[in-house]
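Minutes, project check-in
Item: structure for the 284-residue chain
Input as provided by the requester:
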Amino acid sequence: MKDFVLRFFKILNKDKFAVISGFILLFWIIIAFLPFMIPSLTNIPLTLNERLANPSSKFLFGVDGNGQSVGLLIMNGASTSLIVSLFTVSMSLFVGIPLGAIAGFFGGRIDIFISRFIDILLAFPPMVLPIAIMAFFGGGLINVVIALSLTGWVSYARVVRGQFLSFKEREFVVAAQSLGASSTRVMFKHIFPNTISPLAVQATFSLAGVIIAEAGLSFLGLGVSQAHVSWGGLLNSARDYLTSNPTLAFFPSLALFSVVASLNFIGETLRLTFDPKSIGAGRM
């Protein structure tokens, strides 16, 4: 643990982008939690007399076509992105870890069956199945999480399977089995801890991917319901005003870009931290 912390700060000392990304991500996490701590922020008042107003001291990010503060909408959109991304990644981990562990540890027909099922899902473009699911079942926060989780678990299963295949023949695993340790104990006591590092990196990148996917579904009108604000939905609403008031699209786009870029930078820093051989190579 001490070596990990030292490597992490060593990389941070060299990579200022990761430090900046950390502060940006912390800012958005605080923004996302504000509507939960102050419920009145979710009740965005209508100011029709200020409709389509440009950014000012009163409305820092302007007012949209419905007469609502863009700043408050972006704040609530951050909450939606936080909920969807965390629940989607959690569900994907819950499904992907045991399936990948079973496939990698036991092998044989179980591995073939799980691997072929993964290959079938990977044969589809990433957004095709979520779009089809949302089009069939309709929009909604829960449906978005389920739709994205049905394909999101695949990457975690592949990572865990590869790690189990790599470690199950190691000396410490063979020694544990020879001492009478059960398969479950060997899998999750001796092998699984070695999968935490790549899973943490994969989860960080997946958070960014889920946020983009949710925004894309909402932009197409297939995402969260009207009861929840989404950055993708804000971009969809701003299309009619791109020429007259481009700031309506600029600020949600900036929010989406800053969060996704920050997660990617932090994910790369974690990758370098968990892989000591990468230290010194840095980012090209």
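Outcome recorded: The two ends are 27 Å apart (CA to CA).
No further action items on this chain.
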